[in-house]
Amino acid sequence: MTLCDNADDAFELLGEQTFNVIVLDIMLAQGNGLTVADIAAFRQPQANVICVTDTSFFSDGSIFSHSATARLMLRRGTPPEELAAIISHYGARSAAAVR
After folding, report:
1. 39 near 11, Cβ under 8 Å?
2. Cα–Cα distance between 90 and 18 in angstroms, integer?
3. Could you tell me which residues are beta bridge partners of residue 70?
4. CATH match of 7-98 with 3.40.50.2300
5. Core-most of 8, 22, 66, 82, by most CB within 10 Å?
6. Lowest-pLDDT range, 20-24, 25-29, 79-83, 92-96?
7. Which of the 8 DSSP states describes residue 44?
8. What are phi and psi of 62, to 5 degrees?
């Protein structure tokens, strides 16, 4: 697992490491989460993006028209065991797609 808290670090990591799943807080404190999702789709199209937010801004499902690799939108308060199961599911799908 790799953690970063801003868009610039995320861009750097996307160029250095390969990810099967990216859990992305759309409302980053520094930078734009949608830009990170765009760069992820370009650099690592096999990586499934799980979007997380504490706002209702994308509750209408519009995230899927903004990000080609977004697989679902979750509330930031999603229980850790549920998030882990989702990551495992989408990580396995992404890894299988690369084979």
Report:
1. yes
2. 15
3. 49
4. yes
5. 22
6. 92-96
7. -
8. -65, -15
For residue 45, how far is the Cα from the chain centroid? Answer: 12
How is residue 70 written in tokens? 């977004």
Q: How far is CA 30 from CA 8, 9, 15, 35, 40, in A?
A: 8, 10, 19, 12, 17
Q: How far apart are CA 99 and CA 87, in angstroms?
A: 18
Return the residue matching tokens 């868009």.
Answer: 7
The gap from C-alpha 23 to its chain's centroid, in whole angstroms, comes to 4
CA 34 from chain centre, in angstroms, equals 9
**Separation between Cα atoms, residue 50 and residue 88, nearest integer Å:** 11
Q: Give burial (CB, 10 Å; 0-12/13-18/19+) of 30.
A: exposed
Whole-structure pTM value:
0.80
Tens of pLDDT along 31-85?
A: 888 889 889 988 998 888 888 877 665 555 555 566 667 788 788 888 989 989 9
Tokens 């396995």 belong to which residue? 92
